[in-house]
Amino acid sequence: MGNFKLPEKVDIFEVGPRDGLQNQRDFIPTESKIELVNKLTAAGCQRIEVTSFVHPKWVPQMKDAKEVFSRIDKKEGVVYNALIPNLKGLELALEAGLQEVVTIMSASESHNKKNLNRSVDESLKEIEEINRIAAEKGVKVRSYIATVFGCPIEGDVPVEKVIDIALALEESGSYEISLGDTTGMANPIMAYEIPAMILERLKKASLAVHYHQADGIEFANILASLKAGITVFDGAAGGLGGCPYAPGATGNTATETMVDMFHRMGIKTGIDLDLINECGKFAKSLVNCCNV
Ligand code: MG
Hints:
292 residues, alpha/beta, TIM Barrel, eight-stranded parallel beta sheet, binds magnesium ion
């Protein structure tokens, strides 16, 4: 079809069990979390962020991280990972036997300070140490950069700063960097230009995008990033999520709609549309908060 160049296949990185659920007001039973991960596996998701190894005082919703991780059905070839906010989280994740962990930091100083109580430089140093220890154990590290397309506190975030952070993360060993639109501030021009500029500079790390709901603009952003050469897209079944530290944070891009869009374009995802729609319904049934 024409000269609209497209990849044959994209990767979906499913964040629903962690990013989707962590902000929910009431505790979601461990059994339900396990069931959600198992349903996502059955739907064909190949990369699933299962939970977060974070202090239970900080995120009580994730206090069952170890149990959830140990009890999910793990399918051969599927990567099950978890968010770790710091070195302590890495320690817990290693104890639990994870093969891949995910770090997070923000591109804007004030958001990083509020979220992680560290400066951007301090976070980069800690992630470097996480990478060093993880490499010794043969564990892979994926890294989020939040507030890439705008910060709810500072407003515009200079793209040069995002590029510097992405290159530093690559240098410290992160195999993939995910650009987060934490409060749904991206537009399709940014969604094309920022990933394109970073892709040009990265030597070996792959690049992903993580868009949040913005009245449908997120799908225009996804298309723009696809055109820029991105082939890894983060989403949460049911569109669940939001950031507890970002005022006005919206849910994640709904995985099932993203899968539907890619399939309509003839791009493979490896995910069954009917089954991921069921996952979306199930995920929504688990939450009672208004931020879906
Ligand atoms: Mg998110």
